[in-house]
Design goal:
The strands form two sheets. This protein has a five-stranded mixed sheet with strand order 5-4-1-6-7, sandwiched between helices. The longest helix has 13 residues. 39% of the residues lie in helices and 13% in strands. By secondary structure, the chain is an alpha/beta fold. The protein has eleven helices and eight strands. The chain starts with a helix and ends with a strand. The chain folds into three domains: 45 residues, no CATH class; 63 residues, no CATH class; 136 residues, Ribonuclease H-like superfamily/Ribonuclease H (Nucleotidyltransferase, domain 5).
């Protein structure tokens, strides 16, 4: 834009220059002429063509507006009504319009702050940035979890969604041990998955062995006395993670998500497959896998 200004001052600016600039920036020629006129009035506009001028009286989110947003859980319309009521009582300045208030909130508050006002701390955490742990060596740290498979199988003559209990190595992302049960998991399924993870001879392995540490959530199956005694006997340290912190065991959580899209979605009886007409019932002739 400064180059176009210089050409105009030298009376060498042509439509060809403007057309080339418009094609480069993927805007219309009329837009470039408008930017050029704004740059002639204010040289600072040449640095950021098209940027809205900063007005001194532009409304911005004040601490009082933040408190009202927290009180009304991010409801902008309710905050606007509250500001109007206070202004009618002479307790403050008249508020701007609702669109202006929306723009100010979008501009002055981060997505995490807006989500936290509406949904609380757990909603705000979804916008946080989590650092990755350094990748350790093999069998340094394992992670374990239960996940209900998104596929129906025939067990005892009835369609059921089985549960998977598995251990995964954080260094290699290898599945060291797994146990599948037709019903809800228990300490028996944890012990079965642990046995298949520790043993390396056929039919287990080749991945496995004895880990130094295992990360678990606060599931009662993983913290039962029987399972804890088995970990103590193997001299394995158990790291009990805080509740509602899936990002602290991202390896096994990523495995839970990947197994559905990469494997379960192609199996017969996939529970989340789209159906024509949004039918709630499954096809009567569908053949399910046996457990």
């Amino acid at each position: 834009m400064r180059r176009l200004l210089a050409l105009r001052q030298e009376q060498k600016l042509t439509t060809r220059h403007v057309r080339l600039m418009a094609q480069s920036l993927q805007v219309t020629e009329r837009t470039v002429w408008r930017w050029l006129a704004a740059a002639e009035r204010d040289e600072s506009a040449a640095a950021e063509p098209g940027a809205r001028a900063q007005s001194k009286d532009r409304f911005s989110v004040t601490p009082e507006v933040r408190r009202l947003l927290a009180l009304w859980k991010g409801n902008v319309a309710a905050v606007h009504r509250e500001l109007i009521a206070r202004a009618a009582k002479g307790e403050g300045e008249p508020p701007p319009s609702i669109p202006t208030l929306h723009r100010a909130i979008q501009r002055d508050l981060t997505p995490g702050e807006r989500a936290g006002l509406a949904g609380g701390e757990r909603a705000a955490r979804k916008h946080d940035v989590f650092l990755a742990r350094p990748r350790p060596w093999r069998n340094k740290v394992w992670e374990t979890d239960h996940v209900q498979a998104a596929v129906l199988v025939e067990a005892d003559g009835k369609p059921r969604r089985p549960w998977i209990t598995w251990f995964t190595d954080c260094a290699t992302n290898a599945i060291t041990g797994v146990a599948v049960t037709p019903g809800h998991p228990s300490r028996e399924s944890v012990l079965a998955a642990l046995r298949s993870a520790v043993l390396r001879e056929d039919p287990y392995g080749p991945f496995g062995g004895l880990p130094e540490k295992v990360r678990v959530d606060r599931g009662k199956d993983f913290l039962s006395r029987t399972v804890t005694a088995a970990f103590d006997l193997l001299d394995v340290t158990v790291e009990d993670l805080p509740a509602y912190t899936p990002h602290l065991k991202g390896t096994v959580e990523g495995l839970n998500r990947a197994v559905e899209s990469m494997f379960l979605a192609a199996l017969p009886g996939y529970a989340r497959q789209p159906r024509p007409g949004k039918r709630a019932s499954r096809p009567k002739d569908e053949v399910l896998l046996g457990f």
